[in-house]
Amino acid sequence: MPQQSRSIAAHSADALNLEQTHVHAIYDQIAPHFSQTRYKPWPVVQRYLESRPRGSIGLDIGCGNGKYLSVNPEIYIFGSDRSSKLVELACTGKAVGKKRFADVGVADGIDAPFRDSRFDFAISIAVVHHFATRERRREAVKRILRALRPGGTALVYVWALEQRNSRRGWDEGHGQDVMVPWVTEKEGMRTVVERYYHLYRQGEIEADVEDAGGKVVENGYEQDNWWVIIER
């Protein structure tokens, strides 16, 4: 069972250290194994991408192994991820059985070097919950919003606290800042590492979007995640 984090990052330095130790370094460490479990698009994400107009240009902020980059061949997506190891997998396209992706690079979700007001759409799937303070999570949402041109939208997914029927069993009454184990086995050796997550209560991601200057145009729940479609 995932355990509640031993401390909540109250200050910027604490947050950066927590994210470096229990997010960035961990994903670089587990990238090949993690990628093997991430190959099938989630239905809402697939529908969102397939509904983008032909010729649309968008972003996948936190693209992982690139599984969403080729869902709709009639649109163009620039991908970025903080994990250089996952970006390597996305660049080759081998992780998802597709052609090589050229426009994928290493970038932090808050400091992603994309030009403002230039993109028709964006997706950020299971990324924002890895930032260790509410202020940083709101900054990540602000960065997504700034990238959108007027009329553009973004789809954002975050892990839900309300997972009563999942194998994890989280729900009201559990802590929202948790360490989630990832187990790998190689040559008879078992390794367990922990990733940091902030579990979002119902309505919390909507509040963060509004505080970041955005508007929620659609929302829902899928596969133990809350999702929102947002605009500036």
Q: Could you walk me through the main structural features you see in this protein, from its secondary elements to its overall organization?
A:
- The protein is of the alpha/beta class.
- It has a single domain, classed as Rossmann fold.
- Helix content is 28%, strand content 30%.
- A hairpin with a 2-residue loop joins strand 7 and strand 8.
- The protein is globular, with a radius of gyration of 17 Å.
CATH topology: Rossmann fold
| Physical arrangement of strands within the biggest beta sheet | 4-3-2-5-6-10-9
Number of structural units classed as domains: 1
Q: Calculate Rg over CA atoms.
A: 17 Å
Overall helicity: 25-40%
Organism: Lipomyces kononenkoae
Protein name: S-adenosyl-L-methionine-dependent methyltransferase
Keywords: Methyltransferase, Transferase
In a few lines, what is going on in this structure?
Keywords: Methyltransferase, Transferase. The protein is of the alpha/beta class and 232 residues long.
